[in-house]
Amino acid sequence: MVAQIPPGRLATYGQIAELIGAWGCARQVGWALRRLPLPATIPWQRVVNGRGRIAMTPSREGSDWIQRQLLLAEGIPVQADGRLPLARYRWRPDASCGESSGDVAS
DNA sequence: TAGGTGACGGACC
DNA sequence: CGGTCCGCCACCT
């Protein structure tokens, strides 16, 4: 599901959980991404928490900063503390429309 | 077997 | 805004 997030767009852990039919299991989504070997082929960096922040914790051993760099490279402004404009870049999956998954809201 | 621990989220203050 | 508390659930001591 994470692999379906278009470049330059964002999704939340809870959103991914809901999309795969695991409502309320956001923590497990985080668990799965946490143990992902890097570099990874799937765009794991496009998943952030519901408060619009990258979880900045030492336990990630630098993957949080890598995530910030990858998102900046995709054109998403991320502050040094991990805060980012989630509402503007939020990915809204549209099953009915075969078009691209939507434009960035202005 | 029993606690502790999160790449979370919602309710509150 | 920021901060705390709590429910959550699969791992890891």
Short recap of the structure:
This protein is mainly alpha-helical and 106 residues long. Helix content is 29%, strand content 4%.
Approximate shape? globular
Helix content: 25-40%
Number of E-state strands = 2
What is the terminal separation in angstroms? 25 Å
Structure description:
There is one protein chain. Helix content is 29%, strand content 4%. It has a two-stranded parallel ribbon with strand order 1-2. The two termini are 25 Å apart. With 106 residues, the protein is mainly alpha-helical.
Q: What attributes characterize this protein structure?
A:
DNA-binding; globular; mainly alpha
Layout of helices and strands:
Layout (H helix, E strand, L loop, with lengths): L10 E2 H7 L6 H9 L12 E2 L14 H11 L12 H4 L17
Parallel strand pairs: 1-2
Helix pairs in contact: 1-2
This protein binds a DNA duplex (13 and 13 nucleotides) through helix 1, helix 2, strand 2 and helix 3.
